[in-house]
Design a protein that fits this description.
This protein is an alpha/beta fold and 454 residues long. The chain is built from 17 helices and 14 strands. The chain binds nicotinamide-adenine-dinucleotide (NAD) and uridine-5'-diphosphate-glucuronic acid (UGA).
Length: 454
């Protein structure tokens, strides 16, 4: 009989992943549990106002919720009912004590491990879905298997989906990775998890390794992707200084199949909850194993990313006659990328704070991320604030001296830019940090145009 599945953590990872697993495994019961009651209530809401925005997610949830997918706060009941326990709780960067600013904060993880142990009524397979430092499974094992009452196999099944394309990434993954102990008990557990994915993923795309390789591969994959973004942004600065065009450089470099075209888009730098956190985690791991030069190498990826946002603000100030005080800047996009409402580590956040320090008046617009922007910028908002949040991009641009495009929402190139120009103070500037607008058309309207890497 196919085993039931519980996922602890109903966030960006737990929700979409389990919805797709439930859809593809109609004969298994899948329960997603969380300590956050309002989040669970949103997953269960009658009108499907789910707690996260992800294209295609509502349709999958509509198909399976109440059939074989359930959202609940009853962690104990779910652990008792299920034999396979995925753990997708948050693992943010530590903000206190040893390793602050670098290491993962594993308190939510350990709390979950202890509640699984407390509630378990038989042998269980525990699957790390969160991104974790290498050798976390050893700590997990130590907590779970410290008495002989029940036996726990601890596996690592890191998730590679990207926000905005999560459903497609889950339905057609490049690969699924399952790491586990290479003994009889561990290999049998790996096979159980392979079976879940094999109901829709071609078997040759399901890769199995030892548990440490799986944990490290996830960190390494994110570090490589982040490194590509920082590398192209480092080239972008050189393009601006020399008259080269970063899009041309990237297109030709990407045609070399050894380099490939993906993750070569220059922009405001990477955001999102994971790249920075995971690279910092890698830096911390390297330092802890005495690999100081490797740690410095990876730290450079983060430094370059932060520098990119500072560079954008410096260029804007320079183009606006060296002062932003009391000038209005319309910031188009607050999400860290298009097709998500997520604003964690968004480059827009860093840039808005720098603009505020320059005493600019700021109107932020975004089709999905304004509720999160309001939370992130709570300390800067209020009666005396120079910042407003405005859902309508035309209103945000009214009377502005500059539009600073930060997120590559598809909506933005299709706006009526003549109308925007007519409503702005002159000279009107557009700084397109995503290189997604028609630069020549904007110039013909009368805009002064800035791009990254041009
Ligand atoms: P999230 O903050 O959206 O969700 C985590 C959830 O875990 C929260 O709802 C929280 O309430 C819950 N939680 C915390 N402690 C709990 C406990 N003891 N019991 C029950 N629930 C608990 O985070 P996320 O973006 O889903 O990321 C989760 C993990 O997945 C992280 O390690 C992250 O690195 C990894 N990951 C995320 C993505 C992504 O696209 N967001 C992609 C790949 C991997
Ligand atoms: C990333 C990885 O792509 C996923 O494989 C991984 O599972 C996930 O992190 C995770 O571990 O959380 P995500 O952060 O959702 O996914 O989004 P990406 O598409 O990777 O974009 C990350 C950031 O890099 C965004 O701010 C994006 O705008 C930026 N980016 C990306 C660029 O600036 N240029 C590019 O060419 C690509």
């Amino acid at each position: 009989m196919n085993k039931n599945i519980v996922c602890v953590g109903a966030g960006y990872i737990g929700g979409p992943t389990m919805a797709v697993i439930a859809k593809m495994n109609p004969d298994r019961k899948v329960i997603v549990v969380d300590i956050n009651e309002s989040r669970i209530a949103a997953w269960n809401s009658e009108d499907y106002s789910l707690p996260i925005y992800e294209p295609g997610l509502v349709d999958v949830v509509k198909e399976v919720r109440g059939k074989n997918l359930f959202f609940s706060t009853d962690i104990e009941g779910a652990v008792k009912e299920c034999d396979i326990i995925f753990v997708g709780v948050n693992t943010p960067t530590k903000t206190f004590g040893r390793g602050a600013g670098y290491a993962s904060d594993l308190q939510y993880w350990e709390a979950t491990a202890r509640s699984i142990k407390g509630y378990a009524n038989g042998d269980k397979i525990v699957v790390e879905k969160s991104t974790l430092p290498v050798r976390t499974a050893a700590a997990m094992e130590a907590i779970l298997n410290d008495s002989a009452e029940h036996r726990f196999a601890v596996l690592s099944n890191p998730e590679f989906l990207a926000e905005g394309t999560a459903i497609n990434d889950l339905v057609s993954p490049d690969r699924v990775l399952i790491g586990g102990p290479q003994d009889e008990f561990g290999l049998a557990a790996i096979q159980e998890v392979v079976d879940i994915y094999a109901s829709w993923v071609p078997r040759e795309k399901i890769l199995t390794t030892n548990v440490w390789s799986a944990e490290l591969t996830k960190l390494a994959a994110n570090a490589f992707l982040a490194q590509r973004v920082s590398s192209i942004n480092a080239i972008a600065g050189l393009c601006e200084a020399t008259g080269a065009d970063v899009e041309e450089v990237a297109r030709v470099m990407g045609a070399d199949h050894r380099i490939g075209p993906k993750f070569l888009k220059a922009g405001p730098g990477f955001g999102g909850s994971c790249f920075k956190k995971d690279v910092l985690n890698l830096v911390y791991l390297c330092e802890s194993f005495g690999l100081h030069t490797a740690a410095k190498y990876w730290e450079g990826v983060i430094k370059m990313n932060e520098h990119q946002q500072e560079r954008i603000v410096s260029r804007l100030i320079k183009e606006m006659f060296n002062t932003l005080a009391n000038k209005k800047v319309a910031v188009f996009g607050f999400a860290f990328k298009a097709d998500t409402g997520d604003t964690r580590e968004t480059p827009s956040g860093a840039v808005v704070r720098q603009l505020d320090e320059e005493h600019a008046k700021i109107a932020i617009t975004d089709p999905k991320a304004l509720p999160n922007a309001a939370k992130d910028l709570a300390d800067l908002l209020g009666e005396e604030s120079r910042i407003v949040l405005e859902p309508d991009p035309y209103k945000a641009a009214e009377g502005a001296d500059a539009v600073l495009l930060m997120t590559d929402w598809k909506l933005y190139p299709s706006l009526d830019w003549q109308r925007i120009y007519d409503s702005m103070r002159k000279p009107a500037l557009v700084f397109d940090t995503r290189n997604c607008l028609d630069r020549e058309a904007l110039k013909n309207i009368g805009f002064k145009v800035l791009n990254v890497g041009k």
